[in-house]
């Protein structure tokens, strides 16, 4: 078991060295000043920040790693970084040394370290001090490599693409120009024949006049517009005739029913009167 544990620890150590070796080699140490936000005065937290900061070029930007050290008497990790350069801090690591002091490591990306980098801190010392503060950092950028802007890279790539496309377009234009130049030679050969044929035709012949046919109907627009109204009136009259006939039939039927009922009542009444006299 001891052999396997030692083997595992050595493998982890080798992997850590292989991963961190490029960062350690390419990293540059730069000094900075913690300032009160919006001023050129040193911040009260200057004693907590460890000099210098480590800078690495990564993803076409500066990757900055800073360290905050606080004494054991101020409790465990009393300072917290809320945000830095407009974003949450990256790769946060908390380490304690043998004396019990707290070491807080954090990193952030920045495209320009010549301007001030702002951050927000939360300080919590139990029973002594608790507050949130804004702070600014001013870095000394002497010796840092310049970053290649994304605009230049896009411009160069687009220029290479255009240069690759231009030969094909030039050949197309040359082919089209050669075709257009060859076409007039064909047309000039046929022109004299057309002129000769036109001269052979006699001038006395004239095109026949085509008779213009008159429209069949000579009605004026007013008469044409009046026709639909007449048709509508005739249709209305035809529809009104069955309605009148039905009304007359219903009235005759009602009169017959009333007359029959009166005659029936009279006959019944006369029969009763004759029976009572007997």
UniProtKB/TrEMBL annotation:
Any Pfam family matching the protein: NEAT
Keyword Transmembrane in annotation: yes
InterPro entries, alphabetized: IsdA, NEAT_dom, NEAT_dom_sf
Localization, UniProt: Secreted, Cell wall
Compositionally biased intervals (Polar residues): 156-196, 229-240
Bilayer-spanning residue ranges: 257-276
Keyword set includes Signal: yes
Keyword terms: Cell wall, Membrane, Peptidoglycan-anchor, Secreted, Signal, Transmembrane, Transmembrane helix
Region (Disordered), start-end ranges: 148-252
Membrane topology note: Peptidoglycan-anchor
Protein name: NEAT domain-containing protein
CDD domains cross-referenced by the UniProt entry: NEAT
Residue ranges of domain NEAT in the record: 23-155
